[in-house]
Automatic annotation (TrEMBL):
Protein name: Glycogen synthase
Pfam families: Glyco_transf_5, Glycos_transf_1
E.C. number: 2.4.1.21
Domain Glycosyl transferase family: residue ranges: 280-442
Family statement: Belongs to the glycosyltransferase 1 family. Bacterial/plant glycogen synthase subfamily.
Gene3D superfamilies, alphabetized: Glycogen Phosphorylase B
Role description: Synthesizes alpha-1,4-glucan chains using ADP-glucose.
Molecular function terms from GO: alpha-1,4-glucan glucosyltransferase (ADP-glucose donor) activity; alpha-1,4-glucan glucosyltransferase (UDP-glucose donor) activity
Length: 472
């Protein structure tokens, strides 16, 4: 079975969050089980691309509106990631440093999808299935069924994975001129609320879709940034499959980023050694419990509450807890947090830093995730793998993976609604647990033994692939 994963991100080539982690792991585990899974993504001027060898396997050109673009498909030559990876390079569009936030982003992703389908079609490559991730590949199912240029691909099954329905790739209808020529009678498959909506088109046109947790699938019917009725109307082709974590990368026993590696047996001394190094680097108190936040500074992550939360910690928990923040995003949140760096026992690091994130997971006692929206959440899974207790809001994948201390098979602290009050109450419970060192250490060990690897989830994806292919 040959499957193409189509995505804007793939770790370690380029990532901003969970999408990159998933696309960097799932194909590897699929290949281990005999699936010929490959990734197609845009070319970015990133260290991985500069440091590895790529060969040009195809080049051509296409017309976007009134402009012609040349493009090349580049393949990594060593299979270092455990799967084939292809980069689409388009001078003037897909040859930049960052993944998102350019003013012509919609043009970029239209061109990305046009170019990759032209390559596959022209070369008579016949995948058994296209696996499309989020809105950046949302036009693929529509194009292969309704664009004359890609008629050779018509009928190939498509699966859509929804990592985050908040982002939909909206664009005005004037952008339609940039697309490959398509059957104009099918314009409704692109439309949502009088705009072209790639995520809506993906859900309408794909053979099946899945959310990255069962909880998030149910939430999409009630909260999907305007697409609730669409997800509900298409619910018969919807599935929930929880993400896994790549245990080759996220393994405290072998992680090269750590100050000291450790196992379930040595978790107490191992985490203390890592915590000591981190505290010395950022002026924190080794003797106090260490709370961490790692992620994007966005409303959906509850990051707007962090500045007030830091002040609450300083006022109500002076000399009782350390807090370290690693992330970037909303400029107002960044500025507010930067001004609070001088608060006692608080460290704020602005930016994305993969190495430091691993070190924080290995050092922290608690990780807080006050998310308003969390389709799956990987951070809580990484935390538990490293013996760090998650403190989470009950939503989406967090609800599916973290069980409160008050219940059987507890593995964390859970609060219901996003508010400073609830966050502070959760911290009080965490401090009380920390004082009961034997109970706390037992919970650390039990969490490290939990299996959130890709093994189970990979099998569910393969079964879904087989069901779709067998419908032909």
């Amino acid at each position: 079975m040959k499957v193409f994963h189509i995505s804007a991100e793939c770790y370690p080539v380029a990532k901003t969050g969970g999408l990159g982690d998933v696309v960097g792991a799932l194909p590897k585990y699929q290949n281990l089980l005999g699936i010929q899974a490959a990734v197609i993504m845009p070319w970015y001027d990133k260290p991985f691309v500069r440091d590895h060898k790529f060969e040009k396997v195809y080049e051509s050109e296409f017309k976007q509106g009134s402009q012609f673009y040349s493009f090349a498909i580049l393949k990594e030559t060593t299979n270092i990631l455990g799967f084939e990876i292809y980069l689409v390079k388009i001078p003037g569009l897909l040859d930049r440093t960052e993944i998102y936030s350019y003013p012509d982003e919609s043009n970029q992703f239209i061109a990305f999808q046009h170019a990759l389908l032209k390559w596959i079609s022209d070369q008579n490559i016949a995948p058994d299935l296209f696996h499309c991730h989020d809105h950046h590949s949302g036009l693929v199912p529509f194009f292969i069924e309704n664009a004359e240029e890609f008629k050779s691909l018509k009928g190939i099954p498509t699966l859509a994975t929804i990592h985050n329905a908040q982002y939909q790739g909206w664009m005005g209808w004037q952008q339609a001129i940039l697309m490959p020529s398509f059957d104009s009678n099918k314009w409704g498959l692109l439309d949502w609320d009088k705009n072209i909506n790639p995520l809506a088109s993906l859900i309408k046109c794909c053979w099946a879709y899945n959310a990255v947790s069962t909880g998030y699938l149910k939430e999409l019917f009630k909260e999907a940034n305007g697409l609730e009725s669409l997800f509900f109307s298409e619910k018969e082709k919807g599935y929930g499959i929880i993400n896994g974590i790549d245990e080759e990368i996220w393994n405290p026993e072998t992680d090269p980023f750590l100050h000291k590696n450790y196992s379930v047996r040595t978790v107490i001394t191992g985490k203390k050694s890592n915590k000591k190094a981190l505290c010395e680097s950022y002026g924190l108190d080794l003797e106090l419990p260490l709370l961490a936040f790692i992620g994007r500074f966005a409303l959906e992550k509850g990051a707007d509450l962090l500045p007030g939360f830091v002040q609450e910690l300083a006022q109500k928990f002076t000399g009782k807890i350390n807090f370290i923040v690693l992330g970037s995003g909303d400029i107002h949140i960044q500025e507010a947090l930067t001004h609070l760096r001088e608060k006692g026992n608080t460290a704020v690091i602005i930016g994305y830093n993969e190495k430091l994130s691993h070190q924080i997971y290995a050092s922290a006692d608690y990780l807080i995730m006050p998310s308003r929206v969390e389709p799956c959440g990987l951070n809580q899974l990484y935390a538990m793998r490293y013996g760090t207790i998650p403190i989470v809001r009950s939503i989406g994948g967090l609800k599916d993976t973290v069980t409160d201390l008050s219940k059987n098979k507890a593995n964390g602290i859970v609060f219901e609604e996003v508010s400073l009050r609830n966050m502070v109450q959760a911290i009080k419970r965490g401090l009380k647990l920390y004082e009961e060192s034997k109970v706390f250490n037992k919970l650390q060990r039990e969490n490290m033994k939990l299996d959130y690897s890709w093994k189970s989830s990979t099998m569910k994806y393969i079964q879904l692939y087989e069901n779709l292919i067998n419908r032909l």
